[in-house]
């Protein structure tokens, strides 16, 4: 017998008030296929957000579904106390792809936990609790990761276990350096980094940075900025942690990892990943040089990190991504989509900027003729797009309102055009 109480009421009765739901009338997604999902009322949507960039290849991808089913039929769980063939196979692939020499891989269940582990490694290795982070950043919801999150809307407490210093440079078109060209912008950000280091007491452990900020609204610095930072960090012995939870696996099209746009000084010391590698399964992880990963001098395990089922999914998903050149598809189809979005934006005064790379695009909305954020407009477009059959995401900092677009990397040209047409109608509905 069906429970007569509406699902939203049941949600509100047992889950936290701060567990956000999209839409005035939240929807229950029941199944998906390819780049589409369906809700409990039978409505079909083109998915341009992919479970917050997590459904990376496609919904119900047969290769991943088959791998999960077969592994679950043999063994669902064992923990890291036993040899785990799927975990070792995926670690081998990721270590080789990471670009980090003598790489070691540790699996977690989320990006938050991956960044938490990276902070543990960096602070233990450097014997310091001081961390550099970027303004407008987001790195997770744990006690340690909210303490390095430079986005007020996602940092609910200042009672931090870390001493965090925030650096300029991750937001290209706002802030005190926005008027500068790329070369001068990078030079100013490097000078700011040097100045911030002058405020620290002794050795700083690490800089953590998203190559393209996710929750912050898909903002990015000029290419090469983190490479320039790396030269300063190396002089001080400070580690570079690249948070690739949203930028990894070819989503940006031009590069497999976001750090590669800043790689003039080599790969990061530590790389964190999650989201897309599992195509919906709970996988996160950390890649680091052996000397950093092995600096922990106590026993440790992961009960659920490296689960045989999730690892089987990751192996199958990564193989599909590489065999079908989804990075190349992100570059080609994403480039066309960005061009289309910029053409649409030219006709909508509320769109301040279209930015992004590959299949990672952001539309920043402001009150026309100003730089003032317009969260009401962003919410209205989100609703109108849903009514038109398109799911989008939202983001931004304390002074921005951004629509986030990040469909599965297998998006076709026809689907990109379909989504752009729906979004165009939604944008014009608020004018």
Quickly list its features:
431 residues; seven-stranded mixed β-sheet; four-stranded mixed β-sheet; 13 helices; 16% strand; globular
Summed up, the helix count is 13
Profile the largest sheet: 7 strands, mixed
Q: Average pLDDT value?
A: 96
Helix content: 25-40%
Your description of this structure?
There is one protein chain. The chain has 431 residues and is an alpha/beta fold. The protein contains 13 helices and 15 strands. It has helices spanning 7-14, 50-53, 62-74, 85-98, 111-126, 143-146, 182-197, 225-236, 290-293, 308-323, 326-345, 375-388, 413-428, and strands at 29-33, 36-39, 44-47, 103-108, 130-134, 163-167, 206-209, 239-243, 270-273, 284-289, 351-356, 361-365, 390-391, 393-395, 402-405. The strands form three sheets. A seven-stranded mixed β-sheet has the order 4-10-9-8-7-5-6, with helices on both faces. Strands 1-2-3-13 form a four-stranded mixed β-sheet. Helix 8 (225-236) links the parallel strand 7 (206-209) and strand 8 (239-243). Helix 7 packs parallel to helix 8. It is globular and about 55 Å long. The N and C termini lie far apart (46 Å). The mean pLDDT is 96.
